[in-house]
Specification:
The complex is a heterodimer of chains A (481) and B (234). Chain A has 481 residues and is of the alpha/beta class. Helix content of chain A is 44%, strand content 12%. Classes of the chains: A alpha/beta (481), B alpha/beta (234). Chains A and B meet through α2 of A and α4, α5, α7 and α10 of B.
């Protein structure tokens, strides 16, 4: 009658009513920092950050982080904000989850279905791209923008964003009835855009105009079943809310796959990069058990840089991703948070380094892009989506040593600008939504940076031999009303 | 131990978030006849400067800021008792801070909250998913100077506009500075809704609050925009 996942979610909800009571202030400011610090010390992981080698190439270090993360997961569990109690898991539950985990997941249906696989570090298996992140766009361009995002089947595998600024011209407020309507509206628009693009069976991930469970409730039924995904994002650090459980149950009610994330912040409650890497490993172990995710979406973010393309976050993401990739079969979504905007070299370099890192470290999928940090309405074009797809997939099979050398060559070109990045151009300024082509200056930039990176050793011609010329040969039938 | 050494140790204890040690050192200072205001200004307060610098350079983290703030509060309580309530505690101002309705992404707000506290503001942190009405009621309750709203989500931005309009419509605009910040909150947006100020980063927010308190007259001047990175670029 019900998926076994429902039963397990219910069991964890019950734990949220019976676990140890702790004030949230104490969890955030005492328990997380002190436990993280103690476990780092116990496993000799303090001071392991290597700024000279931002992509970790040391298997033993990744394994040590896995052992430490396992211990942290068992010692802490997740904190439920609504009941102020701790949801703990047993070692048996962690082991059972790993044992029962599938060896692949199918997203979407029919000719548009794609298969996601677990990837070990340096895997030759191509990872997948969900595009875009929930960057806000104007209602009137939602359809053509999404049509452009999914234009190339080789580059974008699942539809995630963008988010709507308004619904029928009305401003959407979180948790308001308009959010419920926006959830439904966005899902309908996605269907329409996918149909127009000739990819009607493509997987839809979440409702991106939905911040609370209301938007998800509004949109989940519209994209029920057929390999679609519900997303649920937990608060920092190692916490969960009833809203997360609401979304998970909405997803299960509608036959969705579940993508659940819990983030770790450098400079936040977990402290240094090593602490954030450690909690990220624990999150990747706990989320599949407590919230029954089909794949996780946990990654490390640098609170002082508003992104994760600097050396500290690159290193923390590499070592934490490798820790799980080497020791479990879990599939994980690893996001790169760019700070540069559309049509900037900054964006292209951040994306290249960040995605190359995730790819060689063993991520199975990435949701991309977050152009201009996701701060500005309409600062998203299909080109950033294509670029991230081309980089992420092309890097499959690279070694971590190769990737590390390329990262070291590219980082000096952008890291000084990370605290104050160029927001670039809006979609109207660098992309033609009628022809679905970048404007000349963006096309020129794309080709130049792409060629430079190929010369550096990044095999970007793995997907398309030449850039836009090659892409055009492979584009699906363009359908429009 | 000399007075200078004692006060230096007190500053270090506050910077390290060691409240017990800070209180012991403050008591020792009182017993040796050091003036309570010297204990505050030349000892404990120095610790706040130290932790602020450590955080800025990436050598300290959010829990360290919170710990220092708590240690400082403990010392302040002691000074207040020592002077039988006559000491001027000189808060920079009273701030009501929280994450806009619908938004649970509070890590940036937590940093701002901790930095404001270690910079001498009395901070009342309302947490996440805070309604406009709650901001307002708490501002009245604590006789706040500043209402600080944060959001990482675009769909929580309209509540910032609602907040400014709410204090306007209730006839209390001149009582509270309304400031906004967070990932998608831009200077232009802050100006468009008539906010008193906007800060790009957590440190910028502290500077913003200081500037507003120095300026006075909420709701009367142009939006103050603080972006130290942009200033650096210029």
């Amino acid at each position: 009658m019900y998926d076994i996942k429902v039963q397990r979610v219910v069991q964890n909800l019950e734990k949220s009513y019976s676990g140890r009571i702790i004030p949230m202030h104490e969890w955030d400011n005492k328990i997380i920092p002190s436990t993280t610090k103690a476990i780092l010390k116990k496993h000799g992981l303090q001071g392991t950050l290597d700024l000279e080698n931002p992509i970790n190439c040391d298997d033993s270090l990744a394994d040590a982080f896995f052992k430490a993360g396992w211990e942290l997961a068992l010692e802490l569990g997740f904190y439920c904000e609504d009941t102020e109690r701790v949801i703990k898991v047993s070692e048996e539950e962690l082991l059972e989850s790993i044992r029962d985990y599938p060896d692949h997941i199918v997203l979407g249906e029919g000719q548009d279905a794609v298969t996601m696989y677990p990837r070990r570090p340096e895997s030759t298996v191509e990872p997948l791209i969900e595009a875009s992140l929930g960057i806000v766009c104007s209602e009137e361009i939602y359809l053509p923008l999404v049509q452009g995002i999914v234009k190339y089947p080789k580059l974008v595998d699942a539809l995630h964003g963008p988010s709507l600024a308004t619904v029928f011209g009305h401003t959407i407020r979180s948790g308001s009835p308009l959010e419920t309507l926006a959830g439904h509206y966005e899902s309908k628009l996605k269907h329409e855009a996918l149909w127009r693009a000739g990819r009607p069976g493509m997987c839809c991930v979440g409702v991106n105009s939905a911040i609370t469970e209301y938007g998800h409730l509004g949109g989940a039924a519209e994209v029920a079943g057929r390999g679609n995904v519900t997303q649920s994002l937990c608060p920092v650090e190692m916490k969960v809310t009833f809203s997360n459980f609401h979304r998970v149950l909405h997803g299960l009610n509608n036959g969705h796959k579940l993508r659940v994330g819990a983030f770790s912040y450098i400079g936040g409650f977990a402290g240094p990069p090593e602490g954030a890497a450690l909690t990220c490993v624990a999150n990747d172990l706990l989320v599949p058990v407590i919230l029954q995710s089909d794949y996780t979406s946990s990654y490390v973010y640098d609170i002082q840089l508003f992104g994760n393309c600097g050396r500290k976050a690159l290193w923390a993401n590499s070592v934490s991703t490798q820790a799980i990739s080497r020791n479990t079969g879990y599939m994980r979504n690893k996001i790169v948070n760019q700070t540069g905007g559309p049509c900037t070299e900054m964006f292209m370099l951040e994306a290249a380094v960040g995605l190359m890192n995730h790819c060689v470290s063993g991520a199975s999928i990435s949701t991309q892009p977050r152009s201009a940090g996701g701060r500005y309405t309409d600062y998203i074009t299909p080109v950033e989506c294509w670029w991230t797809g081309e980089v992420f997939k092309s890097c499959a099979g690279m070694t971590r040593v190769q990737a590390n050398e390329i990262a070291k060559a590219l980082l000096p070109r952008y890291e000084g600008d990370l605290p104050a990045s160029d927001k670039g151009f809006s979609v109207y300024e660098c992309y033609d939504l009628k022809t679905q082509r970048p404007l000349p200056q963006y096309q020129e930039l794309y080709s130049r940076v792409r060629n430079e990176l190929i010369d550096l050793g990044m095999p970007l011609n793995n997907v398309y031999g030449d850039t836009f010329a090659g892409m055009d040969k492979d584009v699906k039938l363009h359908m429009s009303l | 131990m000399s007075k200078e050494e004692l006060l230096a140790l007190l500053g270090d204890a506050v910077a390290d978030g060691d409240g017990d040690k800070a209180v012991d050192l403050a008591k020792e200072a009182f017993e040796t006849g050091v003036d309570p205001m010297e204990v505050l200004n030349d000892g404990a307060s120095k610790g706040l400067s130290i932790i602020g610098a450590r955080y800025s350079s990436g050598d300290a983290y959010l829990p360290d800021l919170v710990g220092s703030g708590a240690a400082m509060s403990a010392v302040m309580d002691l000074i207040f008792a020592q002077t039988e309530g006559t000491a001027s505690l000189d808060t920079q101002g009273v701030v009501i801070i929280g994450q806009s309705k619908g938004d649970i992404h509070d890590i940036g707000k937590n940093v701002v909250s901790a930095l404001l506290a270690v910079n001498g503001f009395e901070v009342h942190d309302l947490g996440t998913d805070v309604s406009v009405k709650t901001f307002y009621e708490k501002a009245l309750e604590h006789n706040a100077d500043i209402i600080a709203m944060s959001s990482l989500l675009t769909t929580s931005l309209p509540f910032m506009d609602d907040m400014v309009r709410y204090v306007n419509d209730t006839g209390t605009r001149e009582r509270f500075f309304c400031i906004v910040g967070g990932g998608p909150v831009t200077a232009d947006f802050a100006e468009s809704i008539g906010a008193d100020g906007w800060g790009q980063s957590a440190f910028d927010c502290v500077e913003l609050c200081k500037k507003l308190m120095a300026r006075g007259n909420p709701g009367s001047g142009p939006t103050i925009k603080v972006d130290s990175q942009a200033e650096g670029r210029a």
